[in-house]
Amino acid sequence: MDFIKIENAFKTFDGVHALTDVSFSVKAGEIHGLVGENGSGKSTLMKIIAGSLQPDSAKIMIQNQAVTSYDPLAGMTHGISVIYQDLSLFPNLNVLENICLCTQIIKRKQFYSNKKYIAKVKNILTTLDADIGLYDLVEELPIAKQQLIAIARALNNDAKLLIFDEPTTALTREEINKLFSIINKLKEQNTAIIFISHKLDEIMEICDRVSVLRDGHLIATKNIEELSIPQIEQLMVGQSLVYTKNSDAGLDKNADIVLEVKNLGKKNNFKDISFKLRKKEILGITGLLGSGRTELASALFGIAPSDCGEIFIDNKAVRIKNVRQAVKNGIAYVPEDRLTQGLIMNYSQRENISVAMLNNFKAANGLVDEQKITETAEKWVATLKVKTDSIYKTVKTLSGGNQQKIVLGKWLEMQPKVLILDGPTVGVDIGAKAGLFKTINEMVEKTGMSVILISDEIREITANCHTVLVLQNGRIKHILEKPEEIDDGYIHELLENQKQTIRKVVKDE
Fold this sequence. Notes:
By secondary structure, the chain is an alpha/beta fold. It folds into 2 domains: 2-237, P-loop containing nucleotide triphosphate hydrolases (Rossmann fold); 257-508, P-loop containing nucleotide triphosphate hydrolases (Rossmann fold, 3-Layer(aba) Sandwich), CATH 3.40.50.300. The chain has 17 helices and 20 strands. The chain has helices at 42-50, 72-77, 95-106, 118-127, 143-156, 173-188, 200-206, 229-237, 293-300, 323-328, 338-342, 349-354, 370-383, 400-412, 430-447, 458-464, 488-508, and strands spanning 2-13, 16-27, 31-35, 57-62, 65-67, 80-83, 161-165, 192-196, 209-214, 217-223, 257-266, 270-278, 282-287, 308-313, 316-318, 331-334, 418-422, 450-454, 467-472, 475-480. The strands form 4 sheets. A 6-stranded mixed beta sheet has the order 6-7-8-3-9-10, with helices on both faces. The model has no long low-confidence stretch (mean pLDDT 87).
């Protein structure tokens, strides 16, 4: 039976159609995936389901009963809760207060008492296998535990429908496994689940059905067994673009060596790392979480320098002990966490693009050449096809994919010899991924730069890389250079073998 059913939903904003005749339903005890590019209408539809946004017109039914008056409080009363990407917790309150606050609001209680909820909250946290103290301050807890608090808050409200909005963005694979276990347990208890994610492999792993939105229209709703990742991509953007093989031309094995690393090591992070990177080469680095991928990138960019080993740029030994030295030697770095490491969110797109290379914008009088900054920002916004109506708007107003293009533009302006991309498509929708990889490959051909691509999305690696390093426990376990080795199935097999080894070690211990 459908827990909630929406028929013929329409919603416009200033004449722009956010939803056009969308009909959508979620069954009790179902995990329903919702996918689409940024701007496809996912957020609008979820806000309507949660009651925080009124449609222009729609028929809404909950458990076969028509709903005429619907707002956020009505949504919570019906047991509908959203686990937002930012979790929407009160950081200055403790765990118990955060979990119980919504219940107080729903029951319209003027006075608050902890005591009556303690037993129930303890039971919920035990069910979630959450090792969290009731009086722990939320702001002092890691993100995975904060997410459990948000789920516990919904369960305390007797949740019948849980909406997860990009829930795995900041989680490790181990934490993702635990979250999926919880979601499946909720499904067994007949809770309806809506799971929103840009990570299509997760959609395939966890969902029973999938609905695809494009430009405010519902394109299709299908059972998961009827779909593959390329088919979902096709429905989302009209064609499967992201993983088209970009490196078919091969690599010139006689090209100059731009970067060489010999026996690089950092205590408790990685050891004996040696490789060569040639001009125009895209070198992939993958491995399980904790394999040392990001730590290696941080060392090459001088964020957390190596303890030992040698680094050569154009066959000349260099020291990279800080970011300034890395930039001076032509190394640029696009980090996985663009929000805190890649961008200044309250600054404009124009300022973010110019901030890394301010010395390049000095006029003859020693002052900053504002006109040159503006021209440079406009150049990269046009080149990278950033969807914006003004370079003076803050980057926080952009979608995830367009934010990533701003980070990329900032470092491409440097004209680097080596561009390190660490998880460049985290939180980026499928269409924006296609654009990013197309741009990166074009810039490699145009400028002759070399790229180190770090990713746990294997199809990104196999589609774009000439050589692949597979890391395990901080060491290079495999070097893949032959075309038949740079294959999705083969790399998945290598990583699965690593997982089996880890499971055996844990079991033996």
